[in-house]
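## retry 2 of 3
previous attempt timed out at serialization; input unchanged, resubmitting
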Amino acid sequence: MMQNLRTLVMSLACRSFDGSISEQCHWADGFPLNLHLYQMLLEASFDPNEETLLIEEVDEVLELIKKTWVSLGINQAFHNLCFSWVLFHRFITTNQVENELLFAVDSLLMEIEKDAEERKDPIYSKMLSSTVSLILDWAEKRLLNYRNSFHSGNIDLMEIVVSLGVSAAKILVEDISYEYQRKKKDADVACDRVETYIRSSIRTAFAQKVEKAHSTRRSSNNQKNQLPILAILAQEVSEMASNEKDVYSPILKRWLPHSAGVAVATLHSCYGNELKQFISSINELTPGSLEVLGEAQKLEKDLVDLAVEDSVDSEDGGKAIIREMAPYEVEMVVSDLVKSWIKTRVDRLKEWVDRNLQQEVWNPRANKERIAPSAVEVLRLVDEIMEAFFLLPITTHPSLPTGLISSLDKCLQHYIIKATSGCGTRNTFVPTLPALTRCTRGSMFFKKEKSHIAQGRKSHVGTINGDNNCFGIPQLCVRINSLQHIRTELDVFDKRLKARLRDSRSNGSSRTFEHSLDSCKEGIHHLREAIAYKVIFHDLSHVLWDGLYVGEASISRIEPFLQELEQNLEIISMTVHDKIRTRVITDIMKASFDGFLLVLVAGGPSRAFTRQDCKIFEEDFKFLTDLFWSNGDGLPYDLIDKYSIVVQNVLPLFGTDSESLIERFRSLIISSYGASARSSKLPLPPTTGQWNPNDPNTVLRVLCYRNDESAIKFLKRNYDLPKHQ
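## retry succeeded, writing output
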């Protein structure tokens, strides 16, 4: 029986792999058994008492074991592969405490990588793929999340594991039977694998940080003044980047020189994704959102600095890594949020202006300054918005303060324009000039047809809310005071803003609130004119337009007008602001001069004058100028003289005889119209409103109100003007 067994065994042992007769005896069949037997022999290299240590005579033992190669069909390549597995398996089964075993495995893998010819053997290739894949899987389970597997205390082990992983990957990428065959043979496997380890580990660690931050927030919901999650996360990411650079990158640089840059770029991307979601969820500027954006901006700067520092010696100077780090554009986001913040508050302010101006009554007794409460409040609101803006914890972009001031400027301008609207202008109050007529010979007394004039007056005034107390003279004074107050306060705002803008990057040299200041100037001028012409032509129309020189000049003189004008001047002087009082009184004086002259040259059919009335006019006009002179306590004499020059130039026409006036008129017409004016009928000169002795229309009007035969016949013959009715 033993002989039969020996015969069978020998027949099997003498067969070759290809079926030819071989002189060497080995196991041609049952190849795994050979390997198991050989692995059992290699196990003898370990100390039975210290299972993690090789015996001291390991070299002699290995030489003895090699003598079995012929019998077991083993060669150096198979030996390296088997021994690497035995060492790796012993490391795993002994709680992974002896790093020297991994060093030995790594050395053997480097030898295996050189055995390219052996890979043509299908049995070896299959064994190689199986063994090395197991080693690679073990290594990559740790390396794909190396921040959880390794730390400063065991960082040396990480270097061995990375070397194992890279060596195993290099072997497999060259083995056509493995999935890595799809990669190019000249691919930089080491760089590729290490970059994969970095990105995977960073993403995993980041996800854990995010989950931890959310968990911490959920457990402390009741605490006040908590930092937003992304603000906390930004600080932790910055710490992660520093830790990566100090602890892990020095190891990984052996295979990937810009390893820190890759880690930083990955962190930048991870945080950027969270930041994008956060930005898409916010629509207004809050302390929390500013906190997050501020931390994000600081984090990005830190990460970029680390990436640049790590890539100084790289071929492209770190350009590829920097290009990968798409900017967070925090400044643009903050800018958009600030613009939204500004728009929201300016829109509210504009609504407030519209609402409060509808309710404003311009009461001169509202406060001792006689300023509208709405004017005080709108300035307070503007100041409040500016203060809030400059307290925002942001790095002020030059365009933002300019945008804020421009928006507030428009809002204040809106207030100013609305405050002056509906108050009337010179043309609103000055009555339409009546048609030219001629006197009736011998008519010295005329019926005071006030009813007709007053009726026309009322229909005209109705368009400017004449019956609304908001547009009374005291109320107009409050409006003008309010604009003066705004103007003064804007100068204060301007100085304060320029000081603040000089401290920032903004240009603080240009004037702020320019449109509002210009509108104040225009509005004050508009209101001065409205006050002046409303007093003269509306409030005092009954003693000026409807009363002065109506009928016989000598019995309807200027005293009633002066008395009521003086009362109005006292009220205005007590109400209007000191800085603009003189200009308001001056405008009233100008309007009174206009009214006085208009009565003389366009007073309508209820008036007719003789040459002797000129002295009355001169005397009454002197009384009028004396009212404004007020014995030296009123307006300066040279100012009065300046604005009275028109009246003084026209008054002598009323004392000139009719024949001289007619000749003067003919001369002016011929001078204006040329030879064509020498016909039998003279052309009718247009009304310019620029009254002066050299204006043919002015001279014609003096003739129209001249109650003598020469003037009447001249007007009848040349223009066929109707008689006074």
